[in-house]
Amino acid sequence: MTGVAIVADAAGPEQIRAGFTAALTAADDHTSHIDGLARLLSEAADWYESLQMAGTTVAHLRDAATALTAGSGHLDAGSERLQAAAGDFEARDGQVAAAVADAGNLMDAAGYGESFTLAASSGTPTSTDGNDSMSTASTTGAGDDPGPRSVRIKSDETEPFDVVVTPSAGTVRIDLAAGDPEDSDEYESPFVVLDEAAVAALSDAAAVMEAAEKQARAAHRKLDVALDRLERRRDTLQNKPYESPQATAILDELRELDDHKGQLFKRLRRQARSQLGTEQLKAFHDLESQLAPGTDWSPIRAAQRQVMAEAGVAAEDPFFADQAEHDDLVGRCADLRRQLQAVPLVPLTAKEQAELDRITSEITETEAALAAQGDDRELADGTIATQDGSGLAWRTTVRDGATVTHRLAAAADDTDVPELTGGQLRQVIRAVTHAWEQAR
Asked: Nearest to residue 67, comparing CAs of 44, 28, 34?
């Protein structure tokens, strides 16, 4: 049974855990294969171009390599979300799985997901306890008393909170951040009350927000792929002078070691993300950024080991063996590059030198465009008139070029309303749509 099949068909916690593990392994394996194929196609395109093969053939090869590189990026993103899903399961439903398993199935009629039904209450809808994401009430069905519906929002930057959607006669109330991070009895979630026109306007706004997110991600990815293609072509031209058998042998070994080093680096990043908290991960990456070629890395590595130890990572964890192997490969690659510098060179032709100069200039421009995308900026925003008169403000923001978040807040006061991912936004909109079907 494949990891995907286990995730789809599992009825017990152990099968679900096994499914997540198998799916993560499969995604990582496929990413490595796709990266390798993309690199081979790109190098083949460069080689065939040097043989003066038809330009259309070379262009198709480069397009194929670009598409595969983009696919690898999507697989990486999928792996991160799978890892987040596995961690979320362990932190939430995994803790109550034994009790639920006694009932015969971990799934409910509405499907296993973030949204669930809470028991109706006469006052402000209350969030579930932070240690238990499951409500004791069953999913509302046809003819049932329509109760509030809650979407649990979790992130690395804020305490978990609930967006609670409550249908009423002809209206839908949205408590935008139920659950006080400081457990204050005096805390009341900011809320808005939507009528039919406001629900329709919110659906339209959500479409605009999702489109803005897709456009920002696509623009960033396009520049990223273009930069990768330019850098590969630059490297090919820069390596062309090393055409002697001795230089070719050194380059082949260097390429193999570089590939292995890159795979180790990705694995180390994934291991760090899975084992460290937000602040610890930031400290770890801050130390990583201080590593420089030709310097002594041992003090920085020692500081990183301390960060890992404080997070409870044992000294014999495979992470440290992988890190040592990575650093050894860095040293071996540096030695090979020094050997390469001693090999007699074959100068580039005037045409090749002109192309190298052009590509170097384009790389600088593309890097500047990517850096400009890294500035925080608003992609879309607006305000929806609500029945209670407070107004529902919505906004989509991008950070670091590709990190897109959304916000729904009472227009008068949004101080207590954290940001949502695209997936969380869609969950809220589904809950509102479901509530409106009950309310009208």
From this structure: 34
Confidence of residue 205 (pLDDT cuts 50, 70, 90): very high
Please check the confidence at residue 120 and state whether its pLDDT lies above 60: no
Where helices occur in 51-159 by DSSP H, the ranges are 55-91, 93-101
Q: Name 327's Cβ contacts closer than 8 Å, sequence gap at least 6.
A: 297, 301
Top-tier CATH class for 108-212+376-439: mainly beta
DSSP reduced 3-state for 80: helix
Q: Which of 440, 384, 12, 6 is nearest to 209 (CA)?
A: 384
Integer Cα distance of 248 and 245 in angstroms: 5
Which pLDDT tens digit goes with each residue over 228-257? 899 988 888 887 776 778 888 888 898 899
Whole-Å CA distances, 116 to 112, 281, 413: 9, 32, 27
Answer whether 201's CB lies under 8 Å from 386's CB: no
Tokens of 263: 């795979």
Determine the Cα–Cα distance for residues 289 and 424; give it in Å rounded to an integer.
Answer: 31
User: 105: alpha, beta or left, given left = phi > 0 and alpha = psi -120 to 50?
Assistant: beta
* 32: three-class secondary structure by DSSP: helix
* CA distances for 328 relative to 223, 319, 322, 332, angstroms: 32, 14, 10, 6
Q: CA 162 to CA 146: how far, in whole Å?
A: 18
Q: Over the Cα atoms of the chain, what is R_g?
A: 27
pLDDT at 311 over 80: yes
Domain ranges of the chain: 1-107, 108-212+376-439, 242-339
Q: CB-based contacts of 251: which residues, under 8 Å, 6+ apart?
A: 239, 242, 340
* Element holding 237 (H helix, E strand): helix 196-239
What residues pair up with 135 in beta bridges, in sequence order? none
Tens of pLDDT, residue by residue over 317-350, are 888 999 999 999 989 988 988 888 888 777 888 9
